[in-house]
Structures are given as C-alpha cells and as structure tokens.
Amino acid sequence: CSQPQQATCLGVGGLRSHWWDQHVSLLRHVSFFSGSSSGSTQTDDESTSSSSSKVTGARGLFLEEENAVSLFAYCSPSVVAVTALARPALPPGTGGYSKPYSLMPEEVPKQGAGSGFVWDAQGHIVTNFHVINGAAALAVTSTDGTRFAAKLVGAEPDKDVAVLQLVDENGAARKRVPAIPVGSSATLMVGQRVFAIGNPFGLDSTLTSGIVSALGRDMRSITGRVIRGVVQTDAAINPGNSGGPLLDSGGRVVGMNTAIYSPSGASAGIGFAVPVDTVRRCVEQIIRYGKVRKAALGLHCAHDSQARSLGVTGVLVMGVAPNSGAERAGARGLGRDAAGGVVLGDEVVSVNGTRVATVEDLLSAVELNRPGDFADVVVRRDGTLKTLRVQLSERVE
C-alpha cells in the first residue's frame, strides 16, 4: 500500500501540560448547565437544550465540540501509524537484493498496516497482532510525519494484541510520541460517548465519535479463539483503524479497535474493540516476560460435541496430566470399571464460581488467573458435585 500523506500536527508541549485542568473545568461546566447542580430547577428537556446550545471559549464552540477538540489535541500525538514491512520476492540473479548493484534490500509495505498507541514512557506501542503478523520489519510514524523503526516485543494472538518498542537509542522518539492515559473497560455503560483515533484508509490522525452500542460481545481472534467482553461501538471504524485506541470522554483508553461487521468492508456502524482490561492484562505480561503466561489446570478435555453425545452438559475430562495441579487435587479422567466398562471422567461445571458449559468457557475462566494461583473447580462425579482446589500451572504451547 502507498505511504499515507502525513498531516502537520500542532505542538504538544504546553497544550498537554494543562489540558487536564481545562478538561475537568469544562466537564464541570457541562454538569452545571445540564442541571446536576443541587440548586437547579430545570426540567430534563430544558437542561438538554441549555447544555447543547451553550457556547464557551474564544472559539465559539459548543461545550460538546470544545471537549472533542481538546480531546483530539491531547490524545492524537500518542496515536501512531504502524506499517508492517515485507521483503518482496526478487528475481533470480540479483543476489538477494532488489537491484543488481544495490547493497540495501528494498522493503515494501505489506497489506494490513494500521494504527497503534503509546502505552508508557518506555516507548512501548500497542497494536493488533493481525496488523503486524508476518512482517519482516516494522515502522512507526508519528502525527508530525516522523518515521521510526520499531521491534516486536511479543504478542498474544488469541487476544489480537501485540506490543512493539521504538528503536530509540537517544530518546528522541519518546519525546515526540508521549504515552496516552489508560482507563478501564469494567465501568463502561451502553450509551456512553466514545471516540476513535486512527489511520483509516491511510488517512492519518482521523477522529470519529459515537457511543458504546453494546457490551459483552464475543469475537473470534485470528487464531480462532474467542475474545470475551468485546465492546461494540457505532463510532466509524474502517480498515487502517485496527490497533488504534477507543477513548472515553476523558481521553482515556477503554478499548483497542479491532474489527468491523460490514458486508462491504467499510464502516457500517458496527465496530468492535478489545476491552482495555484484557489488553492491559496481556501487555503487562508481554513487557515483563516477552509473552503472556497462561494458566492451565492440567486437564485433557473432550470436544463439546463428544460431551453432548454422551449426555454431558459441562466439560468432560478425558485425561489428567501427570504431576499437574489437577492430578494433585484428585481430578479423574476417563477410566474403566472392574468389568471393563467405560467410566466417564469428571464433568467440570464451574471455575471460581463461573459456570462453564464448553471448552472455550473453561479456557476463558482459567485464563483470568495466573500460573501459581489456586482455582476452585467444581466437578460432577457419579451424580454428586465436588469442589477441587487446583493450583494452576503454566500452559505449554
């Protein structure tokens, strides 16, 4: 794909340093004019009209517009374009180089270039795994058009999360791309206003807005595993937005834009973002270990269709890994009785109070823990419920 034309961004220095104070003051102003003050006697219709028509500041903008303008000015320098580079197939006789007399291999952008955002002061960039999957090299472009090399720290394909780091020996890159505030997805509400910043169709630093349309959606990742708790939004998300942040009205990341539902491939008002609490759990481990350390019970389970054919409504245990926490806790797999008949193994029905009915449910419940944690696993054995206290081990991929 062609390099997107870079736009010039306003300077960040003084603007970022005092934006929060102005923003908080603005929100208080909105709250006052919306009738939340204890002394207000406005009706709902009157307060809505008052707050939407109130003009503030020298620019003559409405309060909602002022908030969006300030949010973009503050957050956009932390959003970057991520370009995955691949070495092209070269004709025979070139010695592995793009030109017979060149000493430098030519790199071309691969399809799938998207967005990312700065996670911390150490120059870590968070993006989608599908954006950088298969790349031979990575480049990050800031809002002022400056391009930096980046390297892959690690990834969690099951959650479509990847962490890059700027190749930044003298610290110049980190000064140009400051970190963005990270919020929480646990307190999101349907109807809450959200904003997306990214590089759709190569158009850098694009802001779109909308609301949280739904919560708790399930979406399959590039590996086929299900990502739970996905945020649905009607903020326009298009190709190139992948990996960019979904922000609340306070400019805090609440999700990472990942996918859209659209017959045409363009935005149809149904976009999906990985919740930032899931992103945070992955990113912290990737930065620390270079990967996500996943917890495991030590159980080998039957396919869901096999379990249903045997009349099992939970997750059927076929075998137990030797020396695993499940074995030490007394879990049982498939066996035979004295007469040689088949005896079904334990049926897992819940983990730490979370009901499980499928293998995916079980994996998702266990992954909320870390290796070394203990989990209360309720199994049905011979028609009786039994609780096993299992110490989780690290899953071997």
Task: Please describe what this structure looks like.
The chain has helices at residues 13-33, 44-53, 63-75, 129-132, 172-176, 276-289, 304-309, 325-329, 359-366; strands spanning 55-56, 61-62, 79-86, 108-109, 114-118, 124-127, 137-141, 147-156, 161-166, 193-198, 206-220, 226-233, 245-247, 253-260, 271-275, 295-296, 299-301, 315-320, 335-336, 342-343, 347-351, 354-355, 374-381, 384-391, 393-394. A hairpin with a 2-residue loop joins strand 21 and strand 22 (354-355). Helix 1 (13-33) packs antiparallel against helix 3. With 397 residues, the chain is α+β, with helices and mostly antiparallel strands. Strands 3-5-6-9-8-7 form a six-stranded antiparallel barrel. The chain has a six-stranded antiparallel β-barrel with strand order 10-11-12-15-14-13. The protein has nine helices and 25 strands.
What's the structural blueprint in terms of helices and strands?
Blueprint lengths: L12 H21 L10 H10 L1 E2 L4 E2 H13 L3 E8 L21 E2 L4 E5 L5 E4 L1 H4 L4 E5 L5 E10 L4 E6 L5 H5 L16 E6 L7 E15 L5 E8 L11 E3 L5 E8 L10 E5 H14 L5 E2 L2 E3 L2 H6 L5 E6 L4 H5 L5 E2 L5 E2 L3 E5 L2 E2 L3 H8 L7 E8 L2 E8 L1 E2 L3
Antiparallel strand pairs: 1-2, 3-4, 3-5, 3-7, 5-6, 6-9, 7-8, 8-9, 10-11, 10-13, 11-12, 12-15, 13-14, 14-15, 16-25, 17-18, 18-21, 19-20, 21-22, 21-23, 23-24
Helix pairs in contact: 1-3
